[in-house]
């Protein structure tokens, strides 16, 4: 159970904070006393005195740098970064529109790289930071139709692990929280029979609940995980 | 526009920041002719990265201009901008003169 005020004095940057897992995470940090900055393409969906929203397309490197320039006007510290923003188009590779594949590459891989790049510069000053990249069971299960999405999420794990080595001397940890299927707008895009098949194949055959994610998130964002970096934690028994 | 002395001061401050993070027995000797990169350099790779990040940020803060010290052009200079404080100063002044 998360302690009251667990995130007091901490600023968390959450990408894709408008909805789904990102919104759940942002609201969790806020509920437990943290300040949250959200990066998302659309307008804010969270209203809270400790929430600041910036309309940033993380797939656009120039937009990310501009977003950080704006962010630095309101704070000089980012303690926790959750790279959650992602887009998904599921389709056989032979008929996947190249633009959709490129969008996944830009948002799901280049986005976390750019946001981590800029956030780690801010974390460096404080010699403390937690970078938590939201991965996916798709990286391990490699489902049909998810060639580019799964590749991006597998790449995200490698990105995380390399950055973990680079940033360890600065007391910044980098880990991947690879979520299994959770009922979100993104999941609703997929054929329901395909989802049911995937769920049935999991060692723990059920959808992930927000608490399943938040329990691990709390650990990775806390001081207790200071000796844990370059790790991928899968939910639901995926490995 | 920033002059040579101001740019040098920014670089020296970035180097001083490195010392702030080091123990008394790990301090580096900061001077204008010190080597930043290469065989005789006193900075490890992460320290050099920190200097670059601090210098880029300070140049942006003071001049309002964003410069990149690590793009392809920087890496393909006949004389590396990171050979020493003076070469880095010259390269920054070159970038600033073009941006203006």
Which helices and strands appear, and what pairs or packs with what?
The complex is a heterodimer of chains A (239) and B (100).
Chain A: E1 11-15, H1 20-31, E2 35-40, E3 51-55, H2 61-74, E4 80-83, H3 98-126, E5 129-136, H4 138-141, H5 147-167, E6 172-179, H6 185-188, H7 192-201, H8 210-221, E7 231-234
Parallel strand pairs in A: 1-2, 1-4, 2-3, 4-5, 5-6, 6-7
Helix pairs in contact in A: 2-3, 3-5
Chain B: H1 4-20, H2 45-63, H3 72-75, H4 85-99
Q: Which descriptors apply to this entry?
A:
heterodimer; A: 239 residues; alpha/beta; Rossmann fold; seven-stranded parallel beta sheet; 8 helices; 17% strand; globular; B: 100 residues; mainly alpha; Non-ribosomal Peptide Synthetase Peptidyl Carrier Protein, Chain A; 4 helices
What would your notes on this structure say?
The complex is a heterodimer of chains A (239) and B (100). Chain A is built from 8 helices and 7 strands; from the N terminus they run βαββαβαβααβαααβ. Chain A has a 7-stranded parallel β-sheet with strand order 3-2-1-4-5-6-7, with helices on both faces. The radius of gyration of chain A is 17 Å and the shape is globular. The mean pLDDT of chain A is 95. Chain B is mainly α. Chain B has one domain: Non-ribosomal Peptide Synthetase Peptidyl Carrier Protein, Chain A (Orthogonal Bundle). Helices cover 55% and strands 0% of the residues of chain B. Chain B starts with a helix and ends with a helix. Classes of the chains: A alpha/beta (239), B mainly alpha (100). Chains A and B meet through loops of A and helix 2 of B.
């Amino acid at each position: 159970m998360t302690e009251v005020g667990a995130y007091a004095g901490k600023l968390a940057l959450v990408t894709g904070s408008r909805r789904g897992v990102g919104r759940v995470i942002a609201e969790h940090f806020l509920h437990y006393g943290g300040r949250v900055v959200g990066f998302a393409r659309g307008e804010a969906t969270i209203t809270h005195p400790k929430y600041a929203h910036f309309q940033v397309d993380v797939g656009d490197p120039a937009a990310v740098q501009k977003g950080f320039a704006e962010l630095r006007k309101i704070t000089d510290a980012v303690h926790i970064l959750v790279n959650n923003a992602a887009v998904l188009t599921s389709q056989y590779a032979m008929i996947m529109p190249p633009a959709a594949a490129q969008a996944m590459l830009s948002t799901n891989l280049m986005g976390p790289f750019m946001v981590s790049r800029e956030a780690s510069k801010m974390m460096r000053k404080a010699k403390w930071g937690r970078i938590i990249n939201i991965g996916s069971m798709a990286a391990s299960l490699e489902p049909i139709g998810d060639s580019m999405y799964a590749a991006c999420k597998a790449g995200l794990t490698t990105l995380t692990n390399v950055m973990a080595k680079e940033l360890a001397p600065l007391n910044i940890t980098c880990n991947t929280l690879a979520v299994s299927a959770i009922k979100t707008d993104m999941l609703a895009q997929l054929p329901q029979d395909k989802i049911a098949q995937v769920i049935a194949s999991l060692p723990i055959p059920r959808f992930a609940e927000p608490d399943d994610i938040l329990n691990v998130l709390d650990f990775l964002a806390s001081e207790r995980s200071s000796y844990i970096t370059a790790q991928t934690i899968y939910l639901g028994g995926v490995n | 526009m920033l002059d040579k002395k101001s740019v040098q001061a920014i670089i020296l401050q970035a180097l001083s920041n490195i010392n702030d993070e080091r123990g008394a027995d790990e301090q580096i000797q900061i001077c204008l002719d010190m080597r930043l990169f290469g065989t005789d350099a006193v900075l490890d790779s992460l320290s050099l990265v920190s200097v670059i990040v601090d210098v880029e940020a300070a140049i942006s803060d003071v001049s309002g201009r964003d410069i990149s010290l690590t793009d392809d052009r920087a890496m393909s200079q006949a004389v590396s901008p990171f050979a020493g404080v003076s070469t880095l100063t010259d390269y920054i002044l070159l970038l600033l003169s073009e941006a203006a």
